[in-house]
Amino acid sequence: MLYMLLSIVLLLAVNQYFFCPRFVFTKGAAFSGPDLFNPYAAIKPGHWIKCNFHAHAQGWDGISNNYEVACSVHNAYQSLHYGVHCISNHQNIDTTRSGEPNYISAYEHGYNFTKTHQLVLGSAKVQKLDYIFTQTTENKQNIINRLSNESNFVALNHPDLSSGYTAKDLCSLSGYDAIEVLNSKTISTDLWDTALSVGKKAFIIANDDLHNAVTKDQLGNICTFVNAAENSKKSVLKALKSGQSYGVIIGRNQNPDTVPYLEKLTTSMDSVCILMSQPATHIVLTGQNGKTIQSFKNTNSVKFVLRPAEHYARATFTYANQTRIYLNPVFFTDNFTVCQDKAYENVGQTFQFNADGIFILALWAMMTVKILQIARRRNLVQAPFQ
């Protein structure tokens, strides 16, 4: 029994560390260029939709996944006037309200020990492959590649939780759309700035990550506002991919229907102007390597000049009731386009690792045969005396 367990562990480890493709990761470079990319250039104040994309109505055993629990979660968010409220069960797409026009399929991918999870929106099927042991950057890149396509939206979930993603990972990984910067369990602004500082176009997503559908302790605390012309899957996912969104931590005394919102963000040459619907008590502009560029107090309007050496700037607005709004960054680019270098497979190294993995399994198989032969001989020797 022990030997069988060891064999299973070895097979899983060899599959993860030797049969996973190897990649060449391009060295990231800070945002640069003569133009400022503004994700909010086309927004309209009346088009903000309050959303939660990450909530659960299912335990790992699947027993608690039923229609009543899913409806309870949906109804709870609807009572708080959320325009989009997805159920993202682990490795399972919930279809409870699939007939509604604003339905977006969602699931949380990953069943590994270190909570290296991804949020997948818009997919028609679940990707079954994952690596259960501590993942290498290659493991994470391979999973992202398998999850990503033109119609899907992929976010790296709670990266700061259980070291699911490291700073090294975020300097290398590509092919995802967003980082779940705000989660009820952790806030990952440091890792977000790590990715932005090496020129990764990583937009924010923010979610409750609700797990208890009964007590609803995590309900309505964190959300994403998306600027979309209509509340439909196509419009919402397009807005998320283009950065027309921001994350919010909702203060305890915040009226859910009067959350401050972004009215406009405009750029002209190297100048940036931000106008919010309500004055904030404290505003912080964060730039390269997470350094504070500038701060303001008691205003709803911010104007500043972004210098090329600062590469990008993202604004955080804090209100008296502790509601906090995290905007996506504006950043320097060339001709207002963002070309992202993607990791590509090192075919030669992949072949070498595959060969090493086959060699290890062959040795184990030969050792297994030898052990079985020895056991058989012992049984034959002992048989006459029984």
Biggest sheet details: 11 strands, mixed
Mean pLDDT: 93
Secondary-structure-based class equals alpha+beta
Query: Could you say how many structural domains there are in total?
Result: 2
Number of helices: 7
* Count of DSSP strands: 19
**What string, H for helix and E for strand, traces the elements in order?**
HEEEHEEEHEHEEHEEHEEEEEEEEH
Uncertain regions spanning at least 5 consecutive residues: none
Using the alpha-carbon principal axes, give the shape. Answer: globular
Report the span from N to C terminus: 24 Å
Strand content: 25-35%
Radius of gyration: 24 Å
Helix content: 25-40%
Helices and strands in order:
Elements: H1 2-17, E1 23-24, E2 35-37, E3 48-52, H2 67-79, E4 84-85, E5 106-109, E6 118-121, H3 137-147, E7 153-156, H4 167-172, E8 178-183, E9 186-187, H5 189-197, E10 203-207, E11 222-227, H6 233-242, E12 245-249, E13 262-268, E14 271-286, E15 292-305, E16 312-318, E17 324-327, E18 330-333, E19 344-345, H7 347-382
Parallel strand pairs: 3-4, 7-8, 8-10
Antiparallel strand pairs: 1-19, 2-18, 3-11, 5-6, 6-7, 8-9, 11-12, 12-17, 13-14, 14-15, 14-16, 16-17, 16-18
Helix pairs in contact: 1-7
What would you note in describing this structure?
- The mean pLDDT is 93.
- Strands 2, 3, 4, 11, 12, 13, 14, 15, 16, 17 and 18 form an 11-stranded mixed sheet that branches. Strands 5, 6, 7, 8, 9 and 10 form a 6-stranded mixed sheet that branches.
- The protein has 2 domains: 2-22 and 357-385; 26-345, no CATH class.
- The chain has 386 residues and is of the alpha+beta class.
- The longest helix has 36 residues, at 347-382.
- The protein contains 7 helices and 19 strands.
- InterPro entries: Pol/histidinol_Pase-like.
